[in-house]
Structure formats: C-alpha cells, structure tokens
C-alpha cells in the first residue's frame, strides 16, 4: 500500500486529482504560460495563460459573427454547361430532408452550426463576469458544464476538411467557385482551434468556486 | 513543469480514501455523492460503465454493417444513375487518380471506425482480465479513440455538401443514400461508447500488474 500521508494532510481544496488516471497531487498553481502535467499519464491538468479570459471572449464574439454569416451567405457554387447552383452551409446541412434523413439533417446542422454557436455563447456567458471580477452569472456552473459536454460534438473543423474532399469529387463534373462564406468558415475553424488552446478548464472551475480570489 | 515528485509513488484518490470529480478535478471524501464545485455525480470507479460501453458498442457495430452495404451516394448524370457504397466510392476516386482523397475517405470511413471498434473492445476486455499491453499502450489507444473517432463524420459532411451542391437540373444531381443515415448513427454510438469508458480502470489494471510482478 502506498504511503498516502502526504496526500491526506491538509484541506481537500489543496488537492488536484487527474481525471484520467486518478493520481492525486498537492495543488501547485503553475505560473502563467506554464503547465501542470500529470506525472503518471501526462494529461495537462492546469495551463493558465495571461489574459486568457479576455482573449477567449474576443475569439468567441468573432466566432459567433462568423458562424451566423457563414451559414447564410453562399459558400460554394458550381456551374456546368450554363447551369449553376450556389449553396450556403445551412443548405448543405439541411440537404437530408426525407424520412429518417431529416434526423440526419438536424444532426448535421447541429454539429456544424448550432453546437459550435451555443458553445461560444455559453463560454461568453460564463467568462464575461469572471473577467470583470463580478460574481459568477446565474447558473454559470451549469452553463460551463453544458459547454464542456458539447465539446466533442462541435465538428466545424471536420466539416472544413469535408469541403476539401467534396471539391475534389466534383472537380471533374463541374466548375466550382468559392463564395464569401467559404473564407469565413476557414477563419472560423482556425479561431475555434486557437481558442481551445487558450481555455484552461481548471482555472474556470476555480474562479467559479472562488469568484473573489481570482 | 510536472506536478508530481517523480520519485514518489503516485497515490490514487481511491487509495487516499477520496473520490475525484472527473469533470473539475476536485477531491472529496470518498462517501461524497455530488461534486460541490461543479455538480457532477461522483463515482470512485464506474463499475457499470463497461455494460454501457458494450451496449453502445453493439449498436454502433450494428449500424456500421448497413452503412457499408447500402449506397452512400446516388449520382444522376443525364440518363445514367450510379449508386456507390463507401468503399466503392473510394475505389472510383482512386481510378480517377485522386489517391490522396481516396485515402482520406478510406481512413475516415473504414480504418478509423474498424480500429475504433477493435480498440474499445480491447480496452473493455483488458481492464477486466487485467492482462494485455502495458498501460501506456492502452492509454494511447484510449486517446486515439477519444480524439480521432469523431473525424469519421467527415464522410457524412462530404455527402451533405455534394448533395446540396450538385443539383444541376437535367444535367447532374447527387442524392444521399440510406448508408449515410446508418453511418452517422454508427459514428455517434461509438463516440458515446468511448465516452462511457472510465479510463481510471486502465490504470488500476496496470497497478495490479505491477503488484503481481
Ligand atoms: Zn493522470
Ligand atoms: Zn466537480
């Protein structure tokens, strides 16, 4: 049996447990820009950054605007022998419309538009009071929980690679041109990935638990 | 920086009489039911998780079969109608010389899903029997399953884009086939299956291995 005395001493608040491997550590907050990594399974446990809150909010605002714009404006258009067709991302998502395909349409629209959008809105809702040193918003904990649960279902970046594949598939059938939404969506994917790197979950939970000490 | 003193043997929360919140990493006394910080349900080891893993795994596999049998795309060009399955579509692409794209489709639609079924089954069996690979291999597999599995969805998005875009009246049109529906369900259920898995059991199995040595 391992010696646990160095762990069980002191208040539980001073501990951090790795969610992947259950290893327990005395909490040592890393400096901004540094990372606390689980020594057993190498999961990143804490990764605070300076001004991360403000940056995340700024990116979230940009992403919300881009998602709305990219869903409405034409995204790709093709033409062949005088006939042409332009579609928006919303059109692409809602293409499955018959019978069980409708379920698929709703799922696709959810994965590429609504889940990313909702995640950004929830992130702003949770982080804006934290950044302003205000007490947490009502239900902020539930909001952040929902946002984290939706993380794997936010698939904008996968959709972007899907576009590339689709383009090659139609290339010999017709001429394809990019609409404004295509470029917006490209920027959006980069922003979503960048933002994921900024967000330190532990810091958010900690500031929701101790709003004043932040 | 690492949190641990590496010379010290790691202590699990369970061994210290604690239960960890896997959502927010807070520690609580072992009898605590709900995390006081984030409200998550606390379970030291989710013993029932394997049942959920297997149930979702089976549904995912059952959806994967029709996903490969039925056509994924129905292409209509003038008077000619082509139906292609997932693998058939990739083979066609390779015929046109688009090897890169054919590879992406094959990897996302065949290699990743099958690898994922195998990896989840392997993990679920190996934490029970406590034998198998060293746990860093198991962990690597767990991470692959967690982060790569969602990329299988790419084929569904390709079908969605193509069907919306290629609607040139009388000239060419593409419509989705029933396989798209089953394939999407298969990806969703395997993602849920992987999420149901409690990775802490991998490390318990490893700790048992170490003690047996
Ligand atoms: Zn760990
Ligand atoms: Zn918690």
User: How many structural domains of chain B?
Assistant: 2
Q: Based on CA inertia axes, which overall geometry of chain B fits?
A: elongated
Q: Give the proportion of residues in helices of chain A.
A: 40-55%
Which runs of chain B of at least 5 residues are low in confidence (pLDDT < 50)? none
Oligomer status:
heterodimer
Average pLDDT reading of chain B: 82
In this structure, how is the largest beta sheet of chain A organized? 3 strands, antiparallel
Order of SSEs of chain A, N→C?
HEEEEHEEHHHHEHH
Please give the largest β-sheet of chain B.
4 strands, antiparallel
Structural classification of chain A: alpha+beta
> How many strand segments of chain B?
6
Report the bound ligands by name, code or SMILES: zinc ion
Using DSSP, what is the number of strands of chain A? 7
Q: Which percent bin holds the helix content of chain B? A: 55-70%
* Number of contiguous helices of chain B: 7
H and E string of chain B: EEHEEHHHHEEHH
> How many helices of chain A does DSSP assign?
8
Q: Which chains share the greatest interface?
A: A-B, 81 and 75 residues
Q: Measure the end-to-end span of chain B.
A: 31 Å
């Amino acid at each position: 049996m391992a010696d646990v005395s160095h762990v069980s001493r002191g208040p539980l608040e001073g501990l951090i447990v790795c969610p992947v491997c259950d290893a327990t550590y005395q909490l040592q907050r890393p400096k901004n820009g540094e990372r606390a990594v689980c020594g057993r399974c190498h999961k990143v446990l804490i990764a605070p950054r300076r001004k991360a809150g403000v940056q995340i909010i700024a990116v979230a605002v940009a992403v919300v605007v881009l998602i709305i714009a990219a869903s409405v404006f034409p995204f790709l258009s093709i033409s062949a022998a005088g006939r042409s067709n332009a579609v928006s991302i919303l059109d692409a998502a809602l293409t499955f419309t018959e019978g069980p395909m409708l379920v698929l349409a709703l799922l696709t629209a959810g994965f590429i538009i609504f889940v990313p959008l909702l995640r950004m809105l929830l992130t702003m809702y949770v982080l804006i009071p934290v950044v302003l040193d205000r007490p947490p918003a009502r239900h902020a904990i539930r909001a952040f929980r929902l946002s984290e649960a939706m993380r794997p279902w936010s698939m904008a970046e996968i959709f972007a690679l899907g576009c590339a594949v689709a383009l090659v598939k139609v290339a010999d059938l017709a001429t394809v041109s990019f609409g404004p939404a295509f470029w917006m969506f490209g920027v959006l994917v980069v922003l979503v990935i960048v933002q994921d790197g900024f967000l330190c979950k532990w810091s958010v939970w900690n500031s929701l638990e101790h709003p004043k000490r932040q | 920086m690492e949190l641990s003193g590496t010379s010290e043997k790691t202590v699990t929360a369970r061994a210290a009489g604690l239960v960890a919140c896997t959502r927010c990493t807070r520690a609580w006394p072992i009898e605590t039911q709900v995390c006081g910080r984030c409200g998550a349900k606390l379970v030291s080891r989710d013993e029932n998780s394997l049942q959920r893993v297997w149930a979702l795994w089976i549904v995912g596999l059952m959806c994967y079969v029709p996903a490969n049998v039925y056509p994924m795309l129905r292409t209509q060009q003038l008077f000619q109608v082509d139906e292609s399955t997932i693998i058939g579509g990739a083979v066609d692409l390779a015929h046109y010389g688009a090897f890169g794209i054919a590879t992406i489709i094959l990897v996302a639609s065949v290699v990743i899903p099958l690898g994922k079924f195998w990896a989840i089954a392997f993990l679920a069996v190996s934490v029970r029997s406590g034998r198998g690979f060293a746990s860093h291999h198991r962990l690597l597999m767990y991470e692959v399953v967690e982060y790569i599995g969602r990329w299988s969805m790419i084929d569904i998005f390709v079908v969605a884009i193509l069907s919306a875009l290629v609607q040139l009246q009388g000239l060419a049109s593409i419509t989705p086939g029933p396989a798209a529906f089953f394939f999407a369900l298969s990806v969703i259920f395997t993602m849920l299956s992987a999420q149901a898995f409690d990775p802490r059991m991998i490390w318990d199995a490893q700790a048992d291995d170490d003690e047996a040595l």
